[in-house]
Specification:
heterodimer; A: 5-stranded mixed sheet; 13 strands; 27% strand; disordered N terminus; disordered C terminus; B: alpha+beta; 4-stranded antiparallel sheet; 21% strand
Chain lengths: 352, 232
Amino acid sequence: MPALISTHPKAAPMENKVFKLFAQNTFPIGVEITAKFVRMAQLGLAGGQIRLVAGGSEPLPDGIEPYSGQWQRCAIEAVRSIYSTSPFKSKNVVTVMPSSDVFSKEIKESLSETGSAEIINAEAKKLLPSSAEGALVKHIILNENKNSSDEKDILILATEKFKVERYLAIFEKACLNVKAVTVWPIVLVNCCVNIFGRRKTDADTVVLLINATATDCNIAICRQKNILFAKVIPFGTSALAEPDSAEKLVSEIEACIRYFQTTIRTVDIERIILLANKEADQKLTQCVLAVAKKHALPAHVGDVLVAIANSDAYRRGINSRGAKDDWTTTFGLSLSDYSPRCDRVATGRNQE
Amino acid sequence: MDRIDFVPEDYLQRKESHRANFFYLALVGIIAAAALSAFGVIKVRQKAVEREAKAIDERMAIVQQSIKQIESLQSQRQEMMKTALLAAELIEPVPRSIILALLTNALPDGVSLVRVEIMQKKLQQTPAATKASNQYEAAKIAAERKTQNQDYVTELEIEGLAASDIGVADYIASLSGAKLLENVCLVHSMQKELDNISYRQFKLTAHLRSSPAITNEDVDRIRNYQPIKSGI
């Protein structure tokens, strides 16, 4: 029987060329909408490397109540303004629910085909402040490499439907097509895998990812795309100005590491990456360095703006010089659908 | 890694249905536009054909008028031709003096003329029993008959006295040889006594040729005829 796939040595490059012709070279637009700002970024592939296609950030006016009707109108205007001023190449967007709107809980259960949904819904009911009628419940199985017979660590993520619909309404009014509304652990892991963990040696490295916003500090531990642990610390960069706040944050991060080490004894954290702007608050960097020093771990500041090669970022809508904006979430959102080949060598410049 | 997506199912379904509705509406719009444009094209073509038909009708009316004019002109021409023919037939083709000179010049010795009558007669020809296969042929035959029936012939009746039948025969022979005459026939020749001298009284008929080809020389010869004196 003749082979269906051509084995001719010249055939492979030709097939690659054909596939490249139809390959999507731009990813969806990552949009992060918080109470204070709207940030959008679209990445794409150029010559096999991830490049910035377009981006933009616009602050929302002070003095308006977050998530109110006025805030929603301002957010729509900001999205429209950014979309119209920057050279975005599609209307598909991926957004993230703010970590404050997502209720999460880690449980240990041995999942079966039939009863798993009931268990997760019952746990989600306990999480939500209102009735579970209008709730959207998702779950992530942590450490998926465990045997199927063992109890699994399940991260339950639940949010209220009207909160999701609030974001969907913003994008509908801005004439954009929502492709997905995801959650922060996925975004952090996307950033780590696609930008800072593309070496062959990174395939089995367990990494502690830290990303801080003004109000929260998101912690995720992963091995490549396999999420092992995720937690939100309700202690953001705005709280770091207070006395003794740095110690508090360090202790929270250490508590997470201890919990991870006690629950998952098979693997150790090998690296810490602070996903933040290199010009960001030095106190946060000091906190992370203190944790790394205590646990004798190498620590990096992963600045996505530096890692993604951009010679003309300003022209594409992002002012990278001296700006303290953290583009981790938006870049991670844009990379939601991207799955790089594991043998590809990282092109980003990680900063130690 | 699990794919976490908080987009509600009903939102996706609503969007899908919106998209499908839009697609169907667009399809209906396209079909309606196509039908309207086809209708418009047909209407435009119909109007163009109507204009063309109107122009053809106008041209037909003009042509019909000119055909009528031609027909009336042709009938006028036929009338004129008939009149011309009639006039030509009424005018004597050969002067009577020439005919009398010819008849006199042809007289042999011992033959004299008593009476000469020249008259024109209509030539009645029996039509050939041809059956017309169609209307056109019938009309053609009828036209031929009409023209044939209107032919005229100039007939001469000659009466005279001769000493004997030999003189009559010579006279007939000389008349038959004349260019102007044809169908010279003897009607009768009978014995008649006049002053105790017997003569032969005869009657001849002859037809004047319908298109006598006589020249001025013939006319001169007839006029300047010198009888051959036999010396008796």
